[in-house]
Write a structure and sequence with these properties.
YaeB-like fold, five-stranded mixed sheet
């Protein structure tokens, strides 16, 4: 099963890097991104490990929690599309 990143997920990851760079701890940002990517890379082995996103009543929209982030993805028969990497305290918005 392939993993794809939507444009919005890429922007979210870039925003994380920018935030930590602005806080003058860019190495922390790099570490956070590396850990998020490592978490995402576990999905092909067990794509249904993430729970259904409570805000949406669709079994294909799932999330992994990587505190303080929610990694939201859409699961179909052939791939996993990462659609958001969103801070958990924010109201979820799909692209």
């Amino acid at each position: 099963m392939n993993i794809e990143f939507s444009e919005s997920a890429i922007y979210d990851l870039e925003d994380i890097i920018i935030y930590y760079t602005e806080q003058q701890v860019p190495l922390v940002g790099e570490s956070v991104i590396s850990a998020i990517i490592a978490h995402i890379e576990t999905l092909p082995a067990n794509p249904k490990i993430g729970r259904q996103v409570p805000e949406f009543a669709m079994s294909s929209i799932r999330e992994l929690i990587h505190s303080p982030f929610r990694i939201v993805y859409v699961l179909n028969d052939t791939n996993i599309q990462i659609i958001r990497v969103w801070r958990s305290e924010r109201l979820m918005q799909l692209p």
